[in-house]
Design a protein that fits this description.
Strand order of the largest sheet: 1-2-4-3-5-6-7-8
Structural class: alpha/beta
Distance between the termini: 43 Å
Order of helices and strands: HHEEEHEHEHEHEHEH
Number of strands: 8
Length: 267
Amino acid sequence: MLLSACSVAPSGNQRLAAADEKAEVSGWQGETFQVVQCLIRSYVPAKLKKAHILTIYIEGDGLAWLTRIKPSPDPTPIAQLVLEMAISQLSGSAVYLGRPCQYTVSLDSGCRSVFWLDSRFSQEIIASMDRAVTVVKNRFQADLINLVGYSGGGAVASLLAARREDVNFLITVAGNLDHQSWSRIHRITPLGNSLNPADFSDRVRANRQFHFVGEDDHNIPPYLIREKISRMPDRNNISVIEVHSYTHRCCWSAGWPYLWSKLPRND
């Protein structure tokens, strides 16, 4: 099934067009900007409004691999799950950030496959995402930010929260919070050139942390999240929310308005 799905995967340009269309029909627009050595694709509401707290959604790993042994030439995500989550947020201001080389691989001469493979959470990549967060925060003249990261974007959000002092909520959705343990349970090569969020968890200065995980997620199983959180010295401000019948992909975008409504109001 994996081979069949990959053989008919839309091209990078088609994936970009699909995201652009999704944004446009919702009154959002796409923008690409340079940070450090990378181009970052963002989607923001067409009418920007000043926000005291800005919620920033960070894309997952996208199409990093075509098969278990064949890397993808373009990491742009096939589905718009994270973008849909951002657009569907019920209250407050939100923006979406792609990861380096997603949507931009044909434009960015500096893109190398290691950026979405072994080095996807490297110091260089996290520095680029940190700068991208600052760029969009400044555009909204925000004082604080909420970071929402899906899957591998959860690792990025966690690493950003460990280096920033302006994080209100850290929210992960099916987040990869310990990629070394994740590699072991899936019996795949470790991400040797990547920072591991588990090594920096005691440095996170977010006011609150919320970690959503699907009950039926076999990619990031609930026990992996709970095990990681149980090792943290101070868990008073951390909540793990296990969502009945959800998997790694289903049904986060459809259910996000309801899940968001259950978080404390912070806008």
